[in-house]
Write a structure and sequence with these properties.
The complex is a heterodimer of chains A (195) and B (197).
Chain A (H helix, E strand, L loop, with lengths): L4 H7 L6 H5 L3 H6 L4 H24 L9 H23 L1 H7 L10 H11 L4 H31 L1 E2 L2 E2 L14 H18 L1
Antiparallel strand pairs in A: 1-2
Chain B lengths: L1 H48 L11 E6 L2 E10 L2 E13 L2 E10 L4 E7 L11 H4 L1 H5 L26 H29 L5
Antiparallel strand pairs in B: 1-2, 2-3, 3-4, 4-5
The chains are: A mainly alpha (195), B alpha+beta (197).
Chain lengths: 195, 197
Amino acid sequence: MAKTITQEFTKGLWAEIAPFRLVLGLCPVLGVTTTMENGIGMGIATTFVLLCSNILVSALRNIIPPKVRIACFIIIIATFVIVVELVMQAYAYPLFLKLGLFIPLIVVNCIVLGRAEAFAYKKGLLFSIADGLGIGIGFTLSLAALGGIREVLGTGTFYGASVFGPSFQPFTFMIQAPGAFVCLGLMLCIMNLFE
Amino acid sequence: MRELIKMVVVLTVLAAFSGGLLAGLRNGTAAQIEKQQLEFVKGPAIKKILEGASNDPISDRFKISDGDMERSFFVGKFDGKANTVAFESFGKGFAGEIGLMVGVNLETDKIVDVGVTTHSETPGLGAMAKDDPDFGAQFKGFSIIEPIKVTNDGGQVNAISGATITSRAVCAAATDAGNMYQKLKPQIAEKIKEFNK
């Protein structure tokens, strides 16, 4: 059964929301979500790479020989990741300093390669754009939600602004790595309850 | 055979295209990236030293080659005259190099202010060289031409308690800045004329 373009877009926001439903791309999900700002920055960077690589892979899908498709995907993805890295360095240097190593690591983010291989290589251009945008925005929202929760509990701020006032004792566990696992697990649990 | 050729051609064209695009983008953003790095790494120290300058010291800069090193000088304009430069020198601290930005008035050869840019000293002790404004403030008004020392070594700088090595390193960096300044002064004077037009 063929899905419409709208369905391809909206599936990324709930039914196949990458970090929770597919449990993919967890390395940046756990690594950078110490604050909401980092999460959104990382999400937008990944969305850009995902969208561009989906467009290019879909447009070139009849030219790329099947035997070397992975190599071609990686060249395309790596190119856009370096574009993001340079642009971020030039115009958002403080964010670049915080995200650091995680930007080059988008190359090996399995969501990006996964969408290229499983979707864009087989489907038309418009569908691939919808898919890339949907999954990317879903990924950004997940990172923002996780980052927001961890930031509020771990440092007592929300997007940099103080929430609880100076008397709040930060729950530092939440901004450390184990806090990321616990928080992700609880969110998965809540999502499954809703289902 | 045809398939093999196709694979090679596709990969080559894709890689060449990608390389070209990135090279172009790199050239296009290099100046902006350098500016951002200056602004966020050295910027705070430069802004503090040249506080009240009527120009933007980070964009008004020039380079002089000193041996095999290229040194950047940041120009500060006061009362409509470019008469102050800030530049970086290094001293060996307790845990690695300490970068010190030194601002010098070209007319009086006196230090305007100093600020630590990069260091890896112990937090709470050596790191006070950067965090405690009183330490850096002691350097104000010293002549850059004479060696600068801590009081223990017969100088005038009160060392940070518990961080004598760091304090000595900052003094050594300031002294080194003085040597560099004396050596390069004719060139600095030449270059700074451009900013006085």
